[in-house]
Design goal:
Oligomer: single chain
Order of helices and strands: HEHEH
Mean pLDDT: 85
Shape: globular
CATH topology: Rossmann fold
CATH superfamily: Vaccinia Virus protein VP39
Number of helices: 3
Radius of gyration: 14 Å
CATH class: Alpha Beta
Largest sheet: 2 strands, parallel
CATH architecture: 3-Layer(aba) Sandwich
Length: 100
């Protein structure tokens, strides 16, 4: 009865089970968050750890890469950010990148 609540780690040809994932760092661009993570890495993490329709929460939203990748993968998302200026910048980027 609790099967729908489980968050299994899916291993597929697209998400192989390996100990180390390698991604190139995010290169500088105007407005880059200082701790921004590579979108490909976040994409793979969300894809491996959730199902379409699930809710992904990011309580340190920063650049919004988790929110953006969640939406691309068909997940719902919640973002929280203490820095109001950063929050507003990320919100405008998310709104301009597609439906939320």
């Amino acid at each position: 009865q609790y099967e729908s609540l489980r968050r299994p780690f899916y291993v597929t040809a697209d998400v192989p089970y390996i100990d180390v994932w390698n991604y190139k760092p995010v290169q500088y661009y105007p407005g880059k968050h200082p701790c921004e993570k590579p979108a490909d890495m976040i994409h793979d993490m969300i894809n491996a750890a959730s199902r379409p329709g699930d809710v992904v929460a990011d309580f340190f939203m920063g650049s919004g890469v988790v929110i953006k990748q969640s939406e691309l993968l068909g997940r719902k998302s919640i973002g929280v950010e203490l820095d109001e200026e950063r929050f507003n910048q990320t919100l405008s980027e998310v709104k301009s990148s597609g439906p939320t």
